[in-house]
Every structure is written in C-alpha cells, then in structure tokens.
Design brief:
The chain is an alpha/beta fold and 416 residues long. It folds into 3 domains: 176 residues, FAD/NAD(P)-binding domain (3-Layer(bba) Sandwich); 126 residues, FAD/NAD(P)-binding domain (3-Layer(bba) Sandwich), CATH 3.50.50.60; 76 residues, 2-Layer Sandwich (Enolase-like, domain 1). It is built from 10 helices and 26 strands. Helix 1 packs parallel to helix 8.
C-alpha cells in the first residue's frame, strides 16, 4: 500500500508542503487538513490590497482549488484535527473520523495574540477586532468608514499596514504601542523613525511607550467607546474616543496539539534542521516551528511567509529521503502608502547603521553591521539593491562602511 502523508494546517506552509511533495516526485497519498473554509491562501494582502478591495478572494488563493484535485492532493477543509495518536499513527478529526498517517506534518501556524484585559468580555464587543484570516477582513471592512476614528493597538506590520489603508479611506487613525518606536522588533531606530514620519505626514497620531489600561464600553455593553492609555503605564491617563479598535500585538504559535501529543515544545514546536520533531514520524513547519538557523547561529521561530515556504520545501525533501537543511537568510516585506519596505536578516545586536541613498526621497538602504560584518539590511524603493543586499547579508560580508554609504559604488561590487 502507498504511504500517506497528512498535513495539519492548510495555510501557506501546509499548501507549499503538499505541492512540494508532488513536485519532488512523491507518489503516495497526501491529505491536507484545514479548519478554514478556504484552500491555502496568502495572508499578507489581508492587511493591504485585499482589505482595500483591490484583490478579489480568488486572487488570494495560492492555487485554484481544481489544481489540488489534479495533483491528487486531498483537501479536507472546515475540518479540525482534535488529537494526534502517535502510537497508532492516527489523527482524530472534528467530524468524528480518524485518519492514518505514515508521516505527519504540522503546519498549524498561529493565532492573533489577545489583548486580555481583566474584566473585558471581548466576544461581546463588536468593534474590537483582530486581523489574521479572511473573515476578520470582512468584519473590519464594515467599520472602515471615512471620518471615523480607528485606534490601533500595536505598531508592528499589521498595525501600520492597516493604518495606511485606513488613512487612504479617509479615517482618523491613532496607533498605540508599549514600545518606544514602531517596528521595534524588526528594524533599527533610524528606519523606525523614518516609517513613523511617513505616517505622521499622512495625519496618523502615535502614543508610543504607552500602555492600554482599560476599555470604556458603551451602555449596551457591545462596543468600545474609549481606549484609556497611560504613558509608561503609570502616567496620567488619556481617554481616546474610538469608533473601531484593531489589536495587532503579535502571534501565538499553535502548539497545543503537539504538546498534547507529547512532542517537544518551547516557543513553538521544536524541530531539527530537517524540520523533524522529537518523533521521527512527525515534522513541523512555518510559524509554529522553532528551528535551528544557520544564519542566526541559534534556534529561532520566524513569522514570515518566505520562511514558511522555504521550511515547507525542506520538510518535503526530508520526507522524500533527500535531506537538505536550509541556508536561507530571513527576509520580510511590508507595503504602506504604496511604499515597499524590504528587510533581510535580523538587525538585533548590530553596533552600527549605515544609510545609503536618501530617506527624504524615500529611496534608500539601511545596513546594520556588528563588528564590521553585515547583519541585516532594510531597503526602501530599491528592489535591485535588495537582491544584492540579500547576498551580502547571507555571506556576512565585511564591507568598508564608507564604501557602503557611497551611492556611486555599485552594491554588488562590495564584499568580494
């Protein structure tokens, strides 16, 4: 009998794992199980083009649904995996059935981190929203009306991208974050200041280094009326009137299924360089996986589409007996007001930032170095330079900072 690979999670990582298995020649049965109603789709456009109605639903799909049928990939949508029986090599499904596997791939992703304020029943508040899946966009769109006030809790990618979309729709926007600067987890102070300046120029106001103390609810108990914040958590309270509140304070990896099955879990499902968990029959990929990184020299859990796709391909190769650890360097991208920000590497730990180009003209690259080695780069409006930066960061190149800052010296010529 042919082997069966069951993939839990029909997101980008799960979809890529299934497709890669077929593309790399796997001839066994593939079952892709997802609890959403949709085939694997792109999440980044949810806070950008799809939110603004520039993309239709079908354009989000990684592949048309018929493609999975042609590739003999069984899609089990609207289906949840409730438990993993590792001894029997079966998963228990929400419809009461059980599904045998020879190999299991966990691509369970993550969920939006909840605000979790004491005494707040979030389920009753129709204008307190999160953004992680297609239904969340549908709920948010109903509130995006010109002249209304959107309060965003969280100055990460999601918060800033939605801020840009809301401004384009004529809304008033306020962003709150406990951190002292925007995108503090992913970029340096120079680029944080630049991005915040772009938003301020469009009318967005910020309450940085501020803590949400409580929500004031209207008499019906079904809507937030005000968000109460305090600078530093202990300063004077400020009441911000709100028509809609969107929370974007990070992602919680979905590890409960793995933990209940006795797999090793620590800030994600622990895997080796080949995506294998503590059970050789079970692999994990994408946002839910904590993996060794050749680039970082330590274990990391990355929340990024490029990582999810690359990690899925690593898992597929492992399942086919062609193990190939990924040498990929983390990279990310964001789009705000039609301006694309591309990032490669992790800037934490850098001791110097070199700017190449012009921030004022919104075409520049920011390079982060540590001990003379290039750690990371943030690039705005220079796609060709980003490709060169990816190679240099991957090589941890040693580059003269003066040459790096000199826009007349081709970036591709450096680091040799």
């Amino acid at each position: 009998m042919k082997e069966t690979v069951v993939i839990v999670g029909a997101g980008q990582a799960g979809g890529e794992a299934a497709s890669s298995l077929r593309q790399q020649g796997y001839e066994g049965r593939i079952v892709l199980v997802g609890d959403e109603a949709y085939p694997p789709y792109q999440r980044p456009p949810l806070s950008k083009g799809f939110l603004l109605g520039k993309l239709q639903l079908a354009q989000l799909y990684l592949k048309p649904e018929a493609t999975y049928e042609r590739s003999a990939i069984e899609l089990r949508l609207r289906t949840r995996v409730d438990a993993i029986d590792r001894a029997a090599q079966e998963v228990a499904l929400s419809d009461g059935s059980r599904l045998h596997y020879d190999k299991l791939v966990l691509a369970t992703g993550g969920r939006a981190r909840r605000l979790g304020l004491p005494g707040v029943d979030e389920a009753k508040l129709g204008n307190l929203l999160y953004l992680r899946a297609i239904p969340d966009v549908d709920a948010l769109r109903a509130h995006l009306v010109a002249g209304r006030h959107l309060v965003l809790i969280g100055a990460g990618y999601v918060g800033l991208e939605v801020a840009a979309a809301a401004v384009d729709l004529g809304m008033k926007v306020t962003v709150i974050d406990v951190a002292p600067r925007v995108l503090s987890r992913v970029t340096g102070p120079e680029v944080s200041g630049f991005i915040e300046g772009v938003h301020r120029a469009r009318g967005v106001t910020f309450r940085m280094s501020s803590v949400v103390k409580r929500l004031v609810v209207d008499p019906s108990g079904q809507a937030v009326r005000e968000v109460v914040v305090a600078a530093g958590g202990g300063g004077e309270e400020e009441h911000l009137a709100a028509d809609v509140v969107l929370v974007g304070i990070g992602l919680v990896p979905n590890t409960e299924l793995a933990a209940a099955a006795g797999l090793a879990v620590h800030d994600g499902i622990v895997v080796d360089e080949l995506a294998r968990t503590s059970d050789p029959a079970v692999l994990a990929v994408g946002d839910c996986a904590n993996q060794p990184s050749v680039y970082a020299g330590r274990r990391i859990r990355l929340e990024s589409v490029p990582n999810a796709m690359e990690h899925a391909r690593v898992a597929a190769a492992t399942l086919l007996g062609k193990p190939a650890p990924s040498p990929a360097v983390p990279w990310f991208w964001s789009e705000q007001y039609g301006m694309r920000l591309q990032m490669v590497g992790l800037s934490a730990g850098s001791d110097r930032c070199v700017i190449r180009g012009s921030m004022e003209a919104r075409t520049f690259s920011a390079f982060y170095l540590a001990g003379g080695h290039l750690l990371a780069a943030d690039v705005v409006g220079r796609p060709a330079e980003f490709l060169a930066a990816k190679k240099l960061v991957a090589a941890k190149a040693v580059i003269d900072p003066a040459a790096l800052a000199d826009d007349t010296v081709p970036l591709a010529s450096l680091g040799g």
